[in-house]
Amino acid sequence: MRVENDIKLGFKDVLIRPKRSTLKSRSQVDLNRTFHFMHSGREWRGVPVIAANMDTVGTFEMASALAQHGMLTAIHKHYTEEQWSEYLSDATDDFYHRIMVSSGTSDSDFEKLNRILTAHPKLYFICIDVANGYSEHFVAFVAKVRKAWPDKVIIAGNVVTGEMVEELLLGGADVVKVGIGPGSVCTTRVKTGVGYPQLSAVIECADAAHGLGGQIISDGGCTCAGDVAKAFGGGADFVMLGGMLAGHDESGGELIEEDGEQFKLFYGMSSATAMDKHSGGVAEYRASEGKTVKIPYRGSIAITIQDILGGTRSACTYVGAAQLKELTKRTTFIRVQEQENRIYT
Ligand code: 5GP
């Protein structure tokens, strides 16, 4: 039996050490990044925060709101082709750089993806998403999509280790999505015992990806703006958010009223709720690996966006990073036993 003994860290295990800085205000910090993608050869500029491709988060309404801030939305895969056409009927060229088309890896997913991309040739990002990115079938699927769409930016995931990041990048992905089990409505770690603390996964996978000229997305596990800053500090090129963006007007999910209080339903994409909705129930061979929760209704996404971007900018000023790009090299993590003072929470 082999046990790896070096400690793996989650966001809750560290804080970022402050450093001398010449920046006067957080307004001086630029959160835009420019990336050059290794296979498609294309360039992208924007604020690298992405709404997750969950049907409660990656909605068209979310995309319209986040695009105003230069952010991205991975549109969930359950919209019909007619809905896509209607939504994109008056889209600007820039808007195509703010959305991703999501796909699973079945034959029908591939056919639907092809039809959407053919109907809307300006679409720029493809997000190929499976819970377990370690299968040969997945790697072969990524290669097939790359062959069909050489000039699209392809994102593939999820994995948590450097060697698999390399395999996916070499197999045709431009960007690899990292995270197994950290999600707010994910139960994979409980149901299977499999997972990897997210910050260590990010640090190790970023190193592997950057060595080849690729990028990574830290997907899942951010509970507050500070976690987003830690993910970027650890080397993530992009950060994907589910729960932090749920519960708003722009989010999907039913609005429920109970005893005068309003809630929105939020659920994992492999929860029984999602499977009932999209695949006619939980298939017999698999357990559901997602929760369904009710979260307090939070109104418009605008305030939450401000909170996330403001927090990230502020983190940059604490370490003297004038641009988000500099945050990683200016970050020193300290291991801690405590985060915030919880006496009044
Ligand atoms: P959050 O930001 O809410 O912590 O994490 C969002 C991420 O959780 C998503 O982008 C996706 O990778 C993951 N996720 C979403 N639904 C499920 C699910 O049902 N099961 C699992 N294991 N992960 C999920």
TrEMBL record:
Ranges that cross the membrane: none
Catalytic EC class: oxidoreductase
Active site: 186 (thioimidate intermediate)
Residues annotated to bind NADP(+): 108-131, 216-239
Keyword vocabulary terms for this entry: Metal-binding, NADP, Oxidoreductase, Potassium
Catalytic reaction annotation: IMP + NH4(+) + NADP(+) = GMP + NADPH + 2 H(+)
Residues that bind K(+): 181, 183
Domain IMP dehydrogenase/GMP reductase: 9-338
Pfam families linked: IMPDH
E.C. numbers: 1.7.1.7
SMART domains in UniProt: IMPDH
Job description of the protein: Catalyzes the irreversible NADPH-dependent deamination of GMP to IMP. It functions in the conversion of nucleobase, nucleoside and nucleotide derivatives of G to A nucleotides, and in maintaining the intracellular balance of A and G nucleotides.
Subunit structure: Homotetramer.
Similarity field: Belongs to the IMPDH/GMPR family. GuaC type 1 subfamily.
Alphabetized NCBIfam families for the sequence: GMP_reduct_1, PRK05096.1
Protein name (database record): GMP reductase
Organism: Kistimonas scapharcae
Gene name of the record: guaC
